[in-house]
Each structure stands twice: as structure tokens, then as C-alpha cells.
Amino acid sequence: MAQDWLDATSHKRVDYSKRITELGRRITEMEDLIEVSAATAAKRALRRGLTREESVEAADRATGPHEEVLTSLEKQLTEATAWHGEADEIGQRLQGLERLATAARQNLQRVEAIEKAELLSMAGLQAKVVSCAPRRKGVACAIREWFIREGQLVPILTDEAWGANQTPDGWLPVSHRPAHSGRSFP
Whole-model pTM? Predict the structure, then answer.
């Protein structure tokens, strides 16, 4: 399942490390450009006979557009760094899910109930009874036969009955099932 998600989103993935490196390079270049522009503008203003304050204003005017670009690049770098962290977290979660799925696939019988619950939780799955199980012609249901042999009514398990008999972690241990009357669990 995790591999399917990775395959389905491969065209959407961005190499954040490469993007972060590129933004860092552009920021360094922009900072150098601002320094050179400010120094050049101030020097030219002084040569024209402007006062020190007027030279500073000339340098600020010359570097203003570059400062705006620098601010934008720094914002992009902050966002890319955050996205890179989120992508790493998602990757770690997917690896965990893949490890759980591999363990389950290898031998589901050896997986503890808590691990099964964790797997279902990570996958966002819930069991819901939507209809009766299909009957196979000529083959008796062993559970139904047990109820008949024991002289019990065969219960019909509805969504409401399933919910009433679930434990908080979603499992239905036999020892916690309440007694029933009629054809369905209370």
C-alpha cells in the first residue's frame, strides 16, 4: 500500500534538498549583489558631492529592489525547509507502514492484536458489516451448524450490534461478548 502511494505520487515529489541548495546559492549571490550595489551607489553619490545622508539614501534606493528579491528568496527557503521536514516525516511513516505490512504479509497469524490494530489505524481502516456473507451452495457454515447443534438461535450481527460489542481499541475478544437474546446481539 505504501509503495502504491509512493508510485502514484512520484511525479508530484520535489527534490527539496536540491531546491534548498539552489535557494541558498541564489541568496548568497543576492547578498553579494546588494553589498556591491550599495557600495557602488554610495561611492558614486559621494563623487557627485552629495552628503553622507544623501549617499546612504542613494544606496538604499539602488538596493531596494534587490532587498525585496532577497526577502522573497529567504521566505522560499524557509518554506522549502519546512516542506523537506514534512516530506521526511511522511517518508518515515510510510516506511513504518511498509514494515508493518511486510510483517503481516509474511505471517499474519504471528502478528499481535495490538500490531493489527496499529496497522488498521495507520491505514485509516475500519471494519463495517455491509451485508451477509455469501452462501456457498452445498457447503454448510460451521459456525451456523454449531449454533444449531447447541440449540441456540443463530444471531444476526448488525453494525449496531458490532459497535456495542467492540472494545475501545476496536477488537472483539470472545471473553467480552455479552450474552444475547433473540436473533441479534444487543
Answer: 0.47
